[in-house]
Each structure stands twice: as structure tokens, then as C-alpha cells.
Amino acid sequence: MMKDPNTCSLIMAGGIGSRFWPMSTPQKPKQFLDVLGVGKSLLQLTFDRMLAFSEERNIYILTNQEYLELVLEQLPGIHASQVICEPQRKNTAPCIAFAAGKIASLNPNANLIISPSDHLVLNSDKFNHCLSTAIETAAMDQLVTLGIQPSRPDTGYGYIEIADKSAGKVHSVLRFREKPDVETAKQFVASGNYFWNSGIFIWKATTILKAFESHAPELHRLFCQDLSRYNGPQEPDFMRDSFAACEDISIDFAVMEHAANVSVVLSDFDWSDLGTWGSLTDHLNKDGHANAVVGESVHLFGAENCLVHMPKGKVAILDGLKDYIVVDSDGMLLVLRKEYEQELKNYLKVLEAVKPIQQPHG
Where are the alpha helices (DSSP H) in the chain? Predict the structure, then answer.
């Protein structure tokens, strides 16, 4: 595949991955972990995927200052200038606005691929085909996202509604829908016109800057009005002041839900955002009782439909469990009914209020 020197990839790697506790912690979130046991972290797998479209020097990592060393350790081929460290967590819109302004100041003709760092893509050929279609669509001043055919009524994803999925691969978006309850999710899946919002975006730098100006004027004023403030000695102060002044808002709320020039590419590659332990289960081999096990010395008796993730050298015997998630990581243990997985964030808040969550040693 010929790489366009104007195509830049922005990998979002600033999240803390709390729904993947206890393996994922604020000190070392899931994007830096080898959760699949393949010898590479999710960030490294994403970087490799983006190399099909961008030269190595045109791949940027959007993260937090606390993860700078982790990024450089895991991606030794990049320069520190390719790591954009937001000074505060202010959601996706501000960091995308900053990165778009920074890259546009270097190359006004840049195309931007925005990809989370913690997604799993099992069919690279289909992914590359969908992304190529998205880049072609973005060339027509479209804000493009990838929509994933839902395989179940999942309440952990936002959804994209289109008019008629039989009309081809590229569609105008009717509306974005927030994470639904179970009954609404079932209706979405049954209709056939709703797709999971992958959080992968493709657009020209000029197109997204215009979109910020029209739909998020304050973000445009803070980050995009004066591009001369990027890539020079004043950039650190400019970044700090802009992030301190901006609102905490996602790119969906700030731009995508308001813009008229939004297209979705219907995608059929095997995908997961690995947002929860349950989402990992779909991609692991299972025994005859639908149990998915990661670990060398895990022994199950009378267990059904469980996910068990044990560290190397850990011996475990589990008896009679059904529909449970069991994860042991660095002195922390999770035993959780699958049906309550979306409550994990709330459970962690209670735990933090009682006692700070233990961090990994070393």
C-alpha cells in the first residue's frame, strides 16, 4: 500500500481504562498492557496498524505527561516531539483540536486519522479497505467515522443511525445515539439501521478546523485561531493555558452531533474496543462450557460461561461458578458477575472512598 505523506495518524492513549481493573490501573492503563498475550501492548498493535497508512514520522501519540516515558519505551522508533502530552484530562475534543492545529500548522494539506489506542482489530485487510474508503470520502470535505455492525445489543457503546444500510458502504449519518439501556439496544440491533460508534475518525485538517469554528467556536478560538503559536518555544505555555481554559467535552458532543457533513463507512472487520472484560471474552478461545481462560494453571470444575484471567505462575481452582469474571493482577482480585460489569466503575469509586486503590509494585 502506498503511503500518502500527507496522511497523519493520531493515536489516543490518555485513558486510564478503569473498566479493565485490576490489570489496568492509573499507573499503567490497559493501552500499555499485553492483554491478549501476543507479546505486544494494545498501543504497539495500534501503531503497527497505522503504519499501513502513515510514515512513522507522521504518527502522533496523544496522551498525558505521566505516560510519556511509557510511550517512548514501547515505541522506541518515534521522537519525543511526536508525543503530545495534554496537561489536563479534558476529554477528546480539546486534545483533537490541539493536535489538528499543531499538524495543520506544519502541513495545511494534512489528512488525519484519529484512532483509540486500545482497540482490537483481527482482520487487517478488511480494516485497511474500510479505512481507505474513509480517506477517499474525507477528501470530499466530509467528517468520517467507522460504524461497526453490532453483534449483540451492547449497552457499552454509542450507536450511529443511518437511513438504509442496503444503499452501499458509505452513508450520511442521521444521528448519533448515546449508550442505551438494554431494551433500547435490542431495538437498535433489530432495526438493522444502527451501528456501533467505533470512535475512529478520518478527516482533512482543514475540514475539522472549519467544523470547530462552526460548532465549537470557543475551542476553535483557544486552539485553532492562531496556528503560529504551535511548534515553537511558546507552545508549552500556549498548551497549558488553552487546556486550563477549555471545557471538558467529547468530539461527539462538540462537533459530530451538530455537523451536517458527517459520513459513516459501514465496517465489517472483526473489531472490539476492549472497553470491558466482557468484550475481551468474545476474542478468546473457549472450552466446552463457554469458559475463556488466560493463565497456565487454572483448573475449572463445574464452571460455565466464565472469564478467568490469571498471571503467570498463579495456580487457581474454581468450582461451580457460572457467568463470572475472575481476574487476579498484582495483589488485586476481581470476582464479578458478568451482568454487573457496567457497575465496575461505581464499585471502584466506593473502593477509592474507603482506601486508595493499590498500585502495581515496581
Answer: 42-50, 68-74, 92-106, 124-138, 182-191, 205-215, 217-223, 235-245, 251, 277-281, 344-354
